Model the fold of this input.
Amino acid sequence: MASGNPTPEGRLTRREAMLQLLRVAGAGTATAAAAIWLSEHSTRPVPELAANAKRDHTVQPAAELPEMVVVQCADESEDAPRALVRQAFADLGGVGRFIARDDVVVVKPNIAWDRTPEQAANTNPYLVAEVVKQCWQAGAKRVIVTDVSCNEAERCFRRSGIEAAARSEGAEVMLPDPSRFREVDLGGVVLQNWQVFEPFLEADKIVNLPIAKHHELTGATLGFKNWYGILGGQRNRLHQQIHQSLVDLAAFMLPTLTMLDCYRVLLRNGPTGGNLEDVALHKTLVAGTDPVAVDAYVAKAYWNLDAVSLPYLKLAEKRGLGRADFENVLTKISHLD
Done:
């Protein structure tokens, strides 16, 4: 994918600069401890009133802090994904901004598929482990790691490496138990009454921890699509009106933080993948309090997809869930050796 063309004055626009930095993240261009601010303070949209059923786990905005951060590293060790998480929390104001003492925290990775970490169909297990560790350090009372898998859950949790990694940090790893779904009025345009897995209804804070992947229907599956993993029932029915259903879900389950795993990116043949030739190593984490901007940024950088190709971005913006024009969101990029 080509980077943006310079302006007539020979300078990249803010949007082009952001995309160029993300695209070259896997090329070994990082420098130690560098940090770049890429946007001025901008006016945040005023959220519209959402349905009464919504679960709002968000934190108060802070004008002096970025709404989105992009962290890249040159290292390929097991600690590299963990370092990305630590830096992302630091750049966003510290984990204590998001997790309070005695919080019940649910960490929601993508654990949908019976795949290994190298195949990049599920969230990187070391990212999950470090998020769990950070939540404990902030004083959480319980930290639960869960997802409603597409393939057989026990195999997905085990083969993804997420079960072992999360338990190594003391998390409760909760497989989807059919007896623990409750019918909830989601209050959406398309999604109304649906079965939701109980931990997501009982949490004080929720960290959405998806992985960036190609998707045969939408072109990419990112933070919004990860919410399908809170639902039971016949989720494939939602594909008939996929963009509206994504926005309905996102308006119902407002996360504390979105941390989008771009350490390995499944560029083709998603969402299940399987072929290592379809995976690119980018060693990047994109995180923020604006879930629309996070999805918009990653979709554009890796698949050249925008709101025309991903209508849910504009639908979400109209619902007051964030900004699709990510270049106007206060953003910080950090590089780690």
